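Hi support team,

I submitted a single chain yesterday and got back a structure, but I'm not sure I'm reading the token output correctly. Could someone confirm the output below corresponds to the sequence I sent? I've pasted both exactly as they appear in my results page.

Thanks,
R.
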Amino acid sequence: MRGIPSPYLWSGTDQYKSGKYVRDGVFDANTVDKQLGCAGLLMAMVQLDPSIKFGTAPPTVAQNTATGAIVAGAVVGAQQAHASGFSLGIAILIAAIGIGVAGIVWLLWQTYRNRA
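Hi R., thanks for writing in. Yes, this is the structure output for that exact sequence:
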């Protein structure tokens, strides 16, 4: 939206320089996010563990939970997107969105469970 790569995805990579929301509704173009973004984390994981690959068989889900299914679906979707010719960045974005949805589902489930 601001014409810069999202720090939530790209912080810690050469794709991001500065700019982030420092509090609700307040964007500062000069602030540098010190937390590693999702894309940087994924790239670091691939360097540390060469068995992590894109386009391989989908992961198995140990438990049949809503969040586990969403995360597995996000990873499979990203693998299929990359295999279909989407750039690696777009494939990672697809996975990050799916994992974000899983986090929201988990938070909603925790809230509902604690009220019951």
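A quick pointer for reading it: The radius of gyration is 16 Å. Let us know if anything else looks off.

Best,
Support desk
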